[in-house]
Amino acid sequence: MYNQKLIKMVKRLLIGVAAVLCIILGYSIAQVQQNLRQNSQVQEEAKQKPEEKQQEQLSLTEQQVEDFLIAYYTKKDLEENRPRYKPFMTDSMYQETVQEEQKPVNQTYKGYVVDQSYESGSIYIDKTHKVALAQIQYSSTTLAEKDNRDSKGLAGITKATIRLTYVEQSGKLLVNKIEPIVLTEAKGQTIGTYSDTSSSSSTPVSSTSTTTPTSSEQTTATSSNQ
After folding, report:
1. What's the gap between Cα 181 and its chain centre?
2. More confident site: 73 or 208
3. How far is CA 26 from the centre of its chain?
4. Within 10 A of 154 (CB to CB), how many other CB atoms are there?
5. Are 210 and 146 in contact (CB under 8 A)?
6. What is the structure's pLDDT at 2?
7. Which of 139, 166, 208, 211 could form a disulfide with 158 if both were Cys (CB 3.0 to 4.6 A apart)?
8. pTM summary value
9. CA distance from start to end of the chain
């Protein structure tokens, strides 16, 4: 009789222990599954952030365009700004620009047209096709004697309109084509709507061929028009 009671007590004890173990095991499994889901979510978010950041970088902005224009049009003399505009260009565009600067017609002005500076620009962006139109103004000084900044010089303001075509390379948007264009206001459209009447030439814009000199005393700096 005593043995039977003892056996029943042991059975109940074992059942209780088994129940506790099942509860603990079930809770542990639930915790493991929750941790796995959280780790998976964290990894997915970490993976999405670089992709979202890259997409933001590949969206062409006015600031990106203006940064290039400042580097491209601001220089003390011909060729001096190459290290500054090179990071904004593809290798082929950079080589094409260097070749343009080395042409005799542009080398003739080296040492005479100096202290060129980007002044202002109106920028229009086509984000879908990664194209930007820029109407810019830049100032420069034409010296009477080559490389002699003490000689009497003439200051002038030059206006230019260009089209920049960008391509994606190594996670960046780089200028792959620079085209001089002419913008005309379209009939029947509000101001700000233009039609492109330029040719398809991709020759880089010369920064010295269209300057109209004015007296240096009359020259005023144009504020940024963004």
Report:
1. 22
2. 73
3. 54
4. 16
5. no
6. 56
7. 211
8. 0.61
9. 100
How much is the CA Rg of the chain, to the nearest whole Å?
Answer: 34
Residues in the chain: 226
* β-bridge pairing 113-126 and 131-143: antiparallel
3-state secondary structure the chain: CHHHHHHHHHHHHHHHHHHHHHHHHHHHHHHHHHHHHHHHHHHHHHHHHHHHHHHHHCCCCHHHHHHHHHHHHCECCCCCCHHHHHHHECHHHHHHHHHHHCCHHHHCCCCCEEEEEEEEEEEEEECCCCEEEEEEEEEEEEECCCCCCCCCEEEEEEEEEEEEEEEEECCEEEEEEEEECCEEECCCCCCCCEEECCCCCCCCCCCCCCCEEECCCCCCCCCCCC
Locate 84 and state its tokens: 């500054």
Each residue's pLDDT tens digit, 12-52: 777 877 777 788 877 788 887 888 888 778 777 777 666 55
Rounded-to-integer distance, Cα 158 and Cα 137, Å: 6
